[in-house]
Structures are given as C-alpha cells and as structure tokens.
C-alpha cells in the first residue's frame, strides 16, 4: 500500500527545517528505525554530507536515524533495503539528472509504489508527478529526460505563489507559466502553497495543511481546492 | 560586424510593446526595409500568426515590415535572406526546441555573427548566451540541448529581479538560483533588469538603459555594473 507525503516546502518562514511537518512524519515513519535520505538536489550547491547532516539532526528528534544514499556503495541496494525514503529539496534538474545517472529512477518509483514510506519536499515532491515540467527551478544541468516517478497521475508546482497584483515586474506569473505548460501538455497541475502537502495512503490522495491548493487543468479555469479535498481521481 | 541588441524585456510596466526601445530600434534596423520575426517562443501559447501580428504593428510605426519565419517554406532560406532578425520572448524551452527541430540554431548564430542586425527580447535574449541554463522559464517542452547561439561569451538572466526582503516565501531567490548554477558551471551570468539591454557593435559590448546590471561570477561575490559599462572582455 502506497504511503507517501508530498510537501510543497521543507521549511516555513521563521520555522526550523521540517518543523511544521514533524508530528506528521512521526506517524508516517512510525515503523522505521532508519530512513534513506536522497540529497542529490543539493540546495545552494551544499555537499551531500552537509545536506544529510541537516536531515539527520531533525529526524534524531523523533528517534529515526538517517543515512545518505551517497554513503552506500550501491544506490540500488540502498533503495531496495530502505525502511523509508526522504528526498530533500533543491534543484530539480540536478536531482532528476542524478536519479537517471545512477539508474534508479524506475527502481525508486517501483519501491515507493510497493509501499516503502516516502517523503518528498520541494524538488523531492516535484519528482512524484508524471514529469518535472512544472518545476520552478533553473536548468543548471541537462537531464536525460523530464519524466519522473509518476507516483500520482498529475504534476505538481511546489512553492505555489499567487501573482502580486501590485507588481510592476513583467516576467511571467506562476499562473501564466502553468498556462504555457497547458498549451502543450494535458497533464493537470496542482499548485501546492507553502504549508500544504498531499497525503497518499493506498490509492487515496488527500490535500493536507491549512491552505487551499490551486488546480490547473487544460482548457479550464483554475479552481481552488479546500484542505481535506480528495484528489484520488485527478488525472 | 556584429550588430545586436539583447533586451531584458520587450515591455515595461504600463508601456506598450517595445515602446521604450523604439528609438534604439529605428537606428539599429535603419538599413532594413523588412525584418524576419521568430515567434517560436509563443508567450502564453498564442499562435505564430498572432505573435507576428503584434510585432508587425510596432515596426510599422518605424516603417519596417515584418514577416514571420513560419510563413516561409524554408526557414533556412528565411534566415539567410533576412535584412534583420527579431526573436521575441515567451518560453525559452519552446524556442530552443523549435530552433533545433528546424535545424537553424547554428545557421542563426553564424548569420548574426556575420553582421545581420539582431534584436532579442527575454527568451530571444536568453538564447544569445552560451546556454539557456539561466532562464527563468518553466521546462514545458524537452529541448535536445541547452546550448544556444553563443553570440556572447557569458549567460544572461533577463527580467532580473532583486530578492524581496520582506517576503515570507521560501522558494529560492533569483540570486540563489544563479548561485546554484555556479555550483556546476563556470560561465559568468549577467542579471539584466527590465529596461536594460546590451548593445553589441563588432566586439564591443555595452550595457544600456538607466539601471545597473548584476554580474555573477563563479566563486566571487556579485557586483553591480553601471550603465555604459563595457562588457567586451567578460568571459
């Protein structure tokens, strides 16, 4: 049975790393003594070790140990044997490139579909969709494909940001960018605001957190979904 | 002799399309009765015809006719025979994909390097750098490569936006994204604010407009460059 948390962000303004999610994670990973951390997205270019240390400190507070996938000789074995998996945020192009280079994209997808509890934040959430084509990140490396884990039948836009009405900036708003995506793709896109997450238990997908999420579907006006909305049939 | 205008944006807040650049363009294209428009970036998913019409209306006011590259049977011939070339903004992934699909990326680069006057705005400016890897756009299509025209020896970040200090949003700032680019790439990046442009005459590259530009170089602190700065030796 699938058991997945897909969070818009790891960190809320003026909070510590993963702080707002900690009670949820305690329950989510309750059968795990240790989890595997995938630090490939390397936010700000920090090292795999530094990033893993950051995750380790937080999970220590709920008595779960953390080991980075880069510490294993064989990343495939690391995934197959993991009690739980957490993919942190950073740059999605880098993360996806590494998952393909290590030849673990498909294995990670199958493993999570088969029930290994998974947590993704930001870039680690982006990869849960059908493709990474609705990421906000800069294409700092060239991945061999934009296809991702496909744990859900739609795409995500984490850190979803409403347009600032008073802005004089002429660059595209987030909504305009997603509209451009839908000029060429029919996949629905869920804009997850910071503080929102998706909880997946088996085939049930539920919007969690205090905020609404914005749903974009091709050739339709966007709609707002309330917390606790059921997204199981979105595709 | 190279003759190139690379503009951060086509449009300033509360101005009409290309309005602020019009006196510059009148001089830039003074030997052209007509120019070739490349509408492939299709902002907001509008059609090639609609986009070309928008450019046509503006250039009409300075007595220059416009023909879209999509109106030609052979895009290679269109580029070779063009008196001047203008690539409009929109989505850089889409633009680059189309230039490769039509097999004209290299021809366009050679043609502009050989002296055909060129104007790029936004996505049409992004492609003037060594790669499109510092675009702000969403990866709505998968291009066969991120390499671009290489008309200059550095990369651009058009619509450069300073971080909003009061923001509670936890997504990366533009500066943080460029910093991540430099964790993996040594190419300098020039953040061009809206209203700024580069003027290239032969090998001379000059920053134009009223605003400073922000220069990012690997392993160095960013610096601000004043208008009229000479960027000819940046690489």
Automatic annotation (TrEMBL), chains A, B:
GO biological process: proteolysis
One annotated GO molecular function: serine-type peptidase activity
Pfam families associated with the record: Peptidase_S51
Record keywords: Hydrolase, Protease, Serine protease
Keyword Metal-binding: no
UniProt xrefs under SUPFAM superfamilies: Class I glutamine amidotransferase-like (SSF52317)
Protein family per UniProt: Belongs to the peptidase S51 family.
NCBIfam families linked: PRK05282.1 (NF003642)
Name of this chain's protein: Dipeptidase PepE
């Amino acid at each position: 049975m699938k058991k997945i948390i897909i969070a818009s962000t790891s960190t809320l303004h003026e909070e510590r790393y993963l702080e707002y999610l900690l009670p949820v994670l305690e329950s989510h990973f309750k059968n795990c003594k240790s989890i595997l951390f995938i630090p490939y997205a390397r936010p700000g270019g920090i090292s795999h070790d530094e990033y893993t240390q950051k995750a380790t400190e937080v999970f220590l507070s709920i008595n779960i140990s953390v080991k980075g996938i880069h510490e294993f000789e064989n990343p495939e074995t690391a995934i197959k044997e993991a009690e739980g998996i957490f993919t942190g945020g950073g740059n999605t192009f880098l993360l996806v490139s590494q998952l393909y280079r290590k030849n673990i994209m498909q294995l990670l997808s199958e493993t999570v579909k088969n029930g290994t509890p998974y947590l993704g934040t930001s870039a680690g959430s982006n990869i849960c969709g059908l493709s990474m084509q609705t990421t906000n990140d800069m294409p700092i490396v060239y991945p061999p494909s934009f296809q991702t884990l496909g744990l859900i039948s739609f795409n995500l836009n984490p850190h979803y940001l409403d347009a600032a009405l008073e802005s004089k900036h002429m660059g595209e708003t987030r909504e305009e960018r997603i509209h451009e995506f839908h000029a060429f793709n029919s996949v629905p896109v869920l804009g997850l605001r910071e503080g929102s997450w998706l909880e997946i238990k088996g085939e049930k997908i539920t919007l969690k957190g205090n905020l609404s999420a914005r749903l974009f579907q091709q050739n339709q006006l966007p709609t707002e979904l309330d917390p606790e909305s059921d997204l199981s049939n979105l595709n």
